[in-house]
Amino acid sequence: MTQKSRTLFLACAFALFSTACGNVDLTAPKAETQNAPVPLKSAPEDITIAAVGDIMMGSTSINDSFLPPNDGRDMLKEVTPILSAADIAFGNLEGPMLDGGISEKCPPIAPPKPGEEPKPVRCFAFRVPTRYGKYLKDAGFDVLSLANNHASDFGEQGRISTRKVLDDLGIKHAGSDREKFSTAYLGVGGKKVAVVAFAHNAIVPNVNEVDAAKQLVAAAKKKADIVIVSFHGGAEGEAAQNVPRQTEIFVGEKRGYLPLFAHSVIDAGADLVLGHGPHVLRGMEIYKDRLIAYSMGNFATYGMFNLKGAQGISAIFQITLEPSGKFASGKIVPVKQIGRGGPALDDTGAAIKKLRQLSTADFGASAPKISEDGTIQPR
User: Fold this and answer.
1) Can you give the pLDDT at residue 32?
2) Do residues 230 and 276 touch, judged by C-beta distance below 8 A?
3) Separation of alpha carbons 265 and 146, rounded Å
4) What are the extents of the domains in the chain?
5) pLDDT in tens, 243-259
6) What is the pTM of this model?
7) Where does the pLDDT of residue 208 fall: very low under 50, low under 70, confident under 90, or very high at 90 and above?
8) Mind giving me the DSSP string for 311-379?
9) 41-108+127-377 in CATH: which number?
10) How far is CA 140 from CA 84, 106, 134, 180, in A?
11) HSE of 369 in the Cβ direction (CA atoms, 13 Å)?
């Protein structure tokens, strides 16, 4: 029995002792998270997922000025009740967790000579301190994707260090290479859940290799009751909010024909597809009763990301799956990043409005129904 399942069991036991169990919502969160917007289970065997996009809580790849206040301890506190209330909390860890090392992307820069102006530094390599792993654990994350274009910023040393940090904390991970670490398995309420992660480089399972992706998902489906696919793909930035029906090219890289990829992995057995990479929200689609979120945006990124406009709008995607894997319902919890980064709940509902507009524009009748309060339902 997982810690989250144990908590639910004890809550029910208390309810039976104190009042009629039939009048108690057995899926309600713990007392300290009572006000958190949690998608209700229509049946006890349903599975709830809280999914978010890119996470990069601060980087030492240039210097320590790119670390958040209070060393990041407070960055995830506001969203922790929502993440920890789900059966599975998922996110994309954008960058290795490593202390030390040298990145080929950012060779050491000699200090300026006396009288010289410092040269501007443009380094798009991330290195998150290993001590920040505890903040992810404390926030409730159960599984993270390591398949993205920054996971190898510090080479194999960075990938090994990241896996060790997460393994030591008991956080599952998927996609740090094409073979041994492509898929993570979790147990939830007697069900086995697989998470398979893809990106657009040669080290990890590749979003451009659709036939290979189908084989990987089919293999996971033989071992698990539910299969969740994560992908890091698509162009980036304000101009990349819509999902094209073609292979996306960005900075000379093929970044996936994403509707083809998403439909293909569902055909192969995937029950939920979660996208990230464009650094903006993208629309959602229902295909064969399965939900596809094409991009969940920036979630907790500090210091080295552009968070202006659409790139600062984010969300927590609360998703409920039936035991068969069919999409049952969901909820969009609007989030924004403020200052140099870090998630804060957004009472303006900007993410809800954005996702309604993008989903309808890109997917029409196959888009889910999104209410003004953020409730997501199949049409």
Assistant:
1) 42
2) yes
3) 19
4) 1-35, 41-108+127-377
5) 999 999 999 999 999 99
6) 0.87
7) very high
8) GGEEEEEEEEE-TTS-EEEEEEEEEEE-TTS-EEE-TT-HHHHHHHHHHHHHHGGGSPEE-TT-EEE--
9) 3.60.21.10
10) 4, 32, 10, 25
11) 6
